[in-house]
Amino acid sequence: MDWMTFTIKLMDILVWPIVVTAAVYALRQQLRHLIPFTKKLKYKDFEMEFGQELKAAKRDAEKAFPEIKRDKKAMLIASADSMPSASIMDAWREVDQVAEKLVLAKRPQADLDTNQRYKLIEDLLIELKIVDTPKSKLFNELRTLRNKVAHAEAYQVSGTEAVQYIELCYRLIDYLQTNKV
Fold first, then answer.
1. Which domain holds residue 35?
2. Transmembrane segments in this chain: where (predicted)?
């Protein structure tokens, strides 16, 4: 390979990255103003969606229309056959959110950022007399099943079992929400 061929191949490789970098640098102020309006970014296999306004609207809607939360249960049950593990994880997340709100309402200084967060929440629910022994046992069993689904590689769950799990989660959620004295 002579020096001329080498130079042409080198230029062929470097031209596009240099042009793109220069264009981004030259237009950086204008691009900075356009970023909040970006809805979707896709590059090869990497894809990212933005929806700040949509997320804010969803939060407002959940506050204004609490029945949307009830629809969450129906959606989880509907998706239990096709995605039982994901449905179980989402149902547990609902239990966790309600239990965390209750615990923090009764004991605002509680630090729930620990390795055994769910065990701590369970202990605080008992200590604060929010749940009795049978309810705490249900909380513990639901937590254990969720951990198996999340962490055990060979653990499989059927759609029917996922629906039963979701029903139990929402019974516990209803109990916690009605007895949050």
1. 3-50
2. 6-27
The number of distinct structural domains making up the chain is: 2
CA dihedral (131, 134, 140, 146) positive or negative: negative
Task: State how far the Cα of 9 lies from the Cα of 3, in Å rounded to an integer.
Answer: 10
Q: pLDDT tens across 3-40, in order?
A: 899 899 888 898 988 998 998 889 888 877 776 666 66
Tens-place pLDDT, residues 154-167: 788 888 999 999 99
Predicted TM-score (pTM) of the model is 0.59
51 CB-near residues (< 8 Å, 6+ apart): 39
Residue 159 to residues 81, 83, 86, 87, Cα–Cα distance (Å): 4, 8, 11, 9
CATH of the domain at 98: 1.20.120
CB 121 within 8 A of CB 103: yes
